[in-house]
Amino acid sequence: MGGPFWPIELRDATAGVVLRPLRRSDESEWREVRRFNRDWLRPWDATLPIPGQVTPNFRAMVRMYDKQAKRAQSVPFAIEVDGRFRGQLTVSGITWGSILSGQIGYWVDSRVAGRGITPLAVAMATDHCLFALGLHRIEINIRPENTASLRVVEKLGFRDEGLRRNYMHIDGQWSDHRTFALTVEDIPHGILSAYRHSRGEGPGSRSL
């Protein structure tokens, strides 16, 4: 593992995007954003398949994420846009040793959708994991029906590695997912700079 693991903040000054730890003080904004986007997010939200399982409340979720991050098991970011909470991006399932891999999952407020926030956040997190933390591979699993997320991985050049049948419990049922991935060898100079170049932009991100 290279560099400081947690806590960490990643900033893109040009777009006003910050990836930072989720905080207890985010609860009010988090609840408002989730409430506003309830129907928009429902088709893509992971659910618990075992009857009687309960999703942790907000404060328990923050504690859980913080524990996992301090154990180097995940990198759980809040997505902040222009100073306001607008979603989450989590690098989960981090495996060290001979695999050096993690999976990115994310959701964003529909009020900032279409502005390039999600691909930018994914690019920032991917570069951090591959070049600062020393992971070798990042993958993203997406429902075939989720056209918005499919556009994200297409913009960033993630490789389509095929379909996983009944891969994850989503919106109350087991759902197929397509797996997309990148390794360090695919992007030796980083994905963020390539993405910004494709949009005709210059460099503008840094970590603190």
TrEMBL record:
Coiled-coil ranges (or none): none
Domain of life: Bacteria
Keyword Transmembrane helix included in the entry's annotation: no
Key words of the record: Acyltransferase, Transferase
Membrane spanning stretches: none
InterPro entries membership: Acyl_CoA_acyltransferase, GNAT_dom, N-acetyltransferase
Sequence similarity: Belongs to the acetyltransferase family. RimJ subfamily.
Name of the protein this chain belongs to: GNAT family protein
